[in-house]
């Protein structure tokens, strides 16, 4: 028994010094730039902003950005897992390692939780759920983006009007909650009662304000993807505003049609070109020219694929394909001499 306690004490000392060393290191909360008591929604919000900033596709060849991206992903994985976050908050990274080494708290052996339970007794779990903060309504706006913006990236200015909370005269009831108390109804007999208790807060009012929002369109975004402006939705008194979400849709284009990551277009050629071949280019969405000519025979409705001339894949350097459908323009009429010549050539 004494030997076991000595081993446990030694392990605790090692953990203590490791915890001291880790204080100098950047914590997972620092990595995501959130306070220690941040809600899961705050963590997700912060992660999304940082992940977009440090994504390898946006920082090609930047080792520092790649390292930062890996660090914020690791921090996000821990802080959005209730069990891992609880262990990290109490025992740091070393606690997570011990937790993983013991099979994630399952199976045989003594894990880090058991060690502290043995020394300090009981090990009462310190999982305190935060009071749910009321949140205003999310506002979803359908936004048509041009094929050019979706191909090259761009931005759209949108006029936005919303209610804004402003100070007002007087006081109001706020932070209302139900408090339980006991009332004596007879000697030795008590009745449990509930009473609503409120505080007095400065009064507020809603005022309508308008401003421009710049929506950034990223290359290769798909229909239905959202650009989110956190806490820019509908406000709510004594709570957090909702989010403003722009749902992206591809606007119709006069020359190209999009299907996923591919582009489709139709090109009309003459009957002579269809028979003897032709040289031809088409102008792409960024104005570069694509050679679509042929030296052979082109059949009506024939479709040819031009690799990597389609839409860029979102957050990638790859592209889809371009499919060109050829329409053959036949003459409306032929003279007898023309018919004779054609018969002579084709017979």
Automatic annotation (TrEMBL):
Keywords: Chaperone, Endoplasmic reticulum, Signal. Residues 27-92 form the J domain. The keyword Transport does not apply. CDD domains: DnaJ (cd06257), DnaJ_C (cd10747). Gene3D superfamilies: DnaJ domain, Urease metallochaperone UreE, N-terminal domain. Residues 1-24 form the signal peptide. The keyword Endoplasmic reticulum applies. GO terms for cellular component: endoplasmic reticulum lumen. InterPro entries: DnaJ-B11-like, DnaJ_C, DnaJ_domain, DnaJ_domain_CS, HSP40/DnaJ_pept-bd, J_dom_sf. It comes from the Eukaryota. SMART domains: DnaJ. It is found in: Endoplasmic reticulum. GO terms for molecular function: unfolded protein binding. Pfam families: DnaJ, DnaJ_C. This is DnaJ protein ERDJ3B.
């Amino acid at each position: 028994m004494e030997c076991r306690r000595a081993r446990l004490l030694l392990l605790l000392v090692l953990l203590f010094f490791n915890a001291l060393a880790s204080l100098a290191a950047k914590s997972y909360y620092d990595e995501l730039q959130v306070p220690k008591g941040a809600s899961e929604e705050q963590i997700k919000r912060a992660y999304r902003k940082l992940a977009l900033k440090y994504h390898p596709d946006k920082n090609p060849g930047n080792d520092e950005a790649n390292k930062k991206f890996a660090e914020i992903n690791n921090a996000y994985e821990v802080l959005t897992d209730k069990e891992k976050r609880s262990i990290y908050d109490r025992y740091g990274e070393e606690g997570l390692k011990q937790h993983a080494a013991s099979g994630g708290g399952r199976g045989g052996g003594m894990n880090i939780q058991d060690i502290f339970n043995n020394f300090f007794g009981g090990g009462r779990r310190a999982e305190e759920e935060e009071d749910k903060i009321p949140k205003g309504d999310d506002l979803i706006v359908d936004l048509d983006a041009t094929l050019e913006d979706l191909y090259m990236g761009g931005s759209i200015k949108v006029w936005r009007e919303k209610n804004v909370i402003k100070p007002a005269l007087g006081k109001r009831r706020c932070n209302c909650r139900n408090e339980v108390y006991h009332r004596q109804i007879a000697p030795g007999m008590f009745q449990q009662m509930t009473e609503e208790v409120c505080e007095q807060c400065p009064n507020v009012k809603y005022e309508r304000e308008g401003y421009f929002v710049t929506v950034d369109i990223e290359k290769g975004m798909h229909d239905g993807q959202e650009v989110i402006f956190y806490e820019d939705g509908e406000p709510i008194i004594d709570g957090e505003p909702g989010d403003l979400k722009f749902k992206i849709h591809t606007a119709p284009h006069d020359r190209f049609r999009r299907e996923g990551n591919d582009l489709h277009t139709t090109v009309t050629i003459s009957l002579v070109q269809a028979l003897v071949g032709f040289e031809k280019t088409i102008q792409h969405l960024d104005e570069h020219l694509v050679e679509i000519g042929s030296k052979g025979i082109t059949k009506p409705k024939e479709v040819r694929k031009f690799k990597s001339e389609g839409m860029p894949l979102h957050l990638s350097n790859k592209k889809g394909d371009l499919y060109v459908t050829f329409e053959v323009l036949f003459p409306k009429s032929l003279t007898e001499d023309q018919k004779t010549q054609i018969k002579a050539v084709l017979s």
